Amino acid sequence: MAPQAASVTNLLSSLANQEHAPLRIHFPETTIQKPGSSVTKPASKPSPTLSISSTITANKPATQKYAAIAIDLDAPFRSFAFLSPILHGIQLNLVAAGSADPEGFVKLEAEENQAPVVPWGPPNPPPISSAHRYVFLVWEQPDGMTVEKVKGTLNLKEPVSLGARIRWDEAGFEKKLGLGEVLAGNFFTCG
């Protein structure tokens, strides 16, 4: 098991005992507001969308781009997670779209025709495993970051294989891409 990145440890600590995270994860059938909410495998199969607290985006230029990642911390078993973390998706060029909803969240949408760097890999923990934690983190995207640059820097080939996703080096990913502090995050469980 790769050591857990400080960004993930800090996020999980900050979300402990919180009713609402500053990032919401949306699936067609459900929205994860409370950190650690449970989602079924079928409900988590479609690619999720994200929304972020407008207090985070309020003083940012409208052109600010964001990067997001999703990882599984508990593969294959929470008690023996030697394959973790597993990368479940990377998206660049997200922008705050439209006005905040009544609860103060604004959608993060990919720029037109912007495919993910790594497409969503739906949760599929083994049947005998306890529920896995699927963590989402969002950063301000550094200037000059492109899908091609990220794929080249991380040596990701199309399609991104399971082998490239296993034992994901989250700390190395953040360092290589020059990502700063995590702006927002959330997680759900699925088993």
What attributes does this structure have?
191 residues; alpha+beta; nine-stranded mixed sheet
Quick description:
The protein is of the alpha+beta class.
Overview of the molecule:
The chain is α+β, with helices and mostly antiparallel strands and 191 residues long. It has a single domain (6-190), classed as Phosphatidylethanolamine-binding Protein (Alpha-Beta Complex). It has helices at 6-15, 54-57, 147-154, 162-165, 170-177, and strands at 23-27, 30-32, 37-38, 49-53, 66-72, 86-97, 105-110, 132-140, 184-190. It has a 9-stranded mixed beta sheet with strand order 2-1-4-7-6-5-8-9-3. The radius of gyration is 16 Å and the shape is globular. The mean pLDDT is 94.
Quantity of strands, as a count: 9
- Beginning-to-end CA distance, first to last residue: 20 Å
SSE string? HEEEEHEEEEHHHE
Q: How can the largest sheet be summarized?
A: 9 strands, mixed
Q: What is the CATH-assigned architecture?
A: Alpha-Beta Complex
Assign the CATH topology: Phosphatidylethanolamine-binding Protein
Classified in CATH, the superfamily is PEBP-like
> How much helix, percentage-wise, in residues?
10-25%
The number of helical elements comes to 5
**Can you tell me the residue ranges where pLDDT is under 50 for at least 5 consecutive residues?**
none
Strand order of the largest sheet: 2-1-4-7-6-5-8-9-3
Overall shape: globular
Whole-angstrom Rg: 16 Å
Number of domains: 1
Computed structural class: alpha+beta
CATH class: Alpha Beta
Q: Average pLDDT value?
A: 94
Strand content: 25-35%
Organism: Rhizodiscina lignyota
Pfam family, one: PBP
Biased composition (Polar residues): 32-41
Region (Disordered): 32-52
